[in-house]
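Hey, sorry to bother you again with one of my protein questions. There's a protein on my desk that I can't quite get my head around. No rush at all, and the record is pasted right below.
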Amino acid sequence: MLILGIETSCDDTAAALLEVKNGRFKLLKHLTASQVKLHGKYQGVVPEVAARAHLETIIPVLTEVLKSPPLRGGARGGARWKKPDTIAVTAGPGLITSLLIGVETAKALSFAWNVPLIKTNHIEGHIYSPLLSSVGARHALPLQIKFPAIALIVSGGHTELILIKNHGQYKLLGRTRDDAAGECFDKAGKMLGLPFPGGPEISKRGAKGNPLAYDLPRPMLHEGFEFSFSGMKNAIRLLIEELKNNVILEGGRRPTDRIHLQNTGSYRSAIAPLQDDTNDLCASIEHAIVDVLVQKSLKAVAKHKPKTFILAGGVAANQKLRQSLAAALPKTTRFLLPEPEFCMDNAAMIAVAGYFQAKKKKFVKYDKLKADANWELV
């Protein structure tokens, strides 16, 4: 089976060509056109700007991926192009203006080539992304998920724990009630004046800082499997404001004395100009976010005892999170996580998720497919 994957749920325009033989994957080619530089000046993704960029790049990206596909013999012994057997496209969730570009393009190709479509959920794509390792990008890769499994999907728009009983059988354990972990990373980076996206920059600077310098709150840490990061984000804001204002100590104490930073629940042994504390701040922010994600994951594992634990989504590229989970998970639980290049939105994961839909013959006609910005996997 030859599957063309298309992904345009947010600000990355991506296409991939996946070949499946005897239950093994071979990623023939994949390409992603990033819009990070385009949105950097806004410190966040602007939906209409993203959609216009998708419109400009979708055909060049597809052309590049498809220009060297597998060849087969023609009627006169020459080689000719082999069209995909199916097209898997992200139909949701995501930004509706972005989703429409990918969906409408897939519908047009389905009509022109007379091949079936697969309506693919973006979150399900992330769940299957660990099956695309750097080895799998070059060679056939056997399927590896053993059920039951638990997936922690963590990105700029999603933070949720999902119990997976089998392929396509999901149960939501808990999700964020407000902001996602990636959103907390990015907004903290913005408040610190770091380049967009803030998550990678915080991780980079945090590697040089002290993660125990500031004791930030861990919202809902002991309340089931749901998350909340809005309170942590506000605590970070208050802490940064305190440091920027160089708090004047009462009672004539010296700035080097240990004091309590009001309204934040945080402590700091010295009040220095913010630029001198950026590394410690980044390390403390990363430590707090990762701590919440790891503790919630361990609680879910302890209760449901999965054979496999999957970490996926953009924040899955965070090295501290990857290392912390690897060290904390039980040895009896298989830990699957994608290579960094497949943590971010990509079309290869959409093609893999599409394969499992195709096995069940869950195809949709081009005139029936619609983008759904709020499509929930569970």
Summary: Residues 159 and 180 are 5 Å apart (CA to CA).
